[in-house]
Amino acid sequence: MAAFRSCGASGAVEFGIYARIIRPRYRAPWTLNAGRKTFALAAVAFVVAFAILTCSVHFASLTVGRQLAPTASPLLHRQLSFGEWPSLALCADLLAWDFFLGMSLMMAAQVFKSAGLKDGVRWSMILAGTLCLAGTRGPATGQLHIQYFGIAGYSCALPVVCTLLAILFRAERDSQPN
Asked: Which residues, at least 6 apart from 167, have a Cβ–Cβ distance to it below 8 Å?
């Protein structure tokens, strides 16, 4: 259950970030031109794929996987487990966290092209996205130690992105007249 809750919490954070990026705002300090809107929509598409894939895998693992007796269907039980590599559940979850989250961060980074704090948001998104995408190579080659780059992307760099976005959004809100 803890894995599913963490999936939901991180998915909620991601949806909050992207809803804020694409939300049209009246008197916004920066406006999205056609190119930035394309990147913002691509970021949303990737984060939706990320959320659906990771939540589906965790839901299947927590519902079907726990109800199966390991002796009744050992191969299916193993494939729905996150315990050992290779398994379908772990492969799909790493695809979500490394590839889809990484691509969403890279696309969202293109929305923030300005000086100052927005530039910091952009570069931190690029760093987090690059680390996540680098982690994709681990499952692809079967050398899971490479996947630690992805873990660094979403467990270390992504919180920095979220913090900078919170500061940026608060500054934008405070600068707008009531």
From this structure: 117
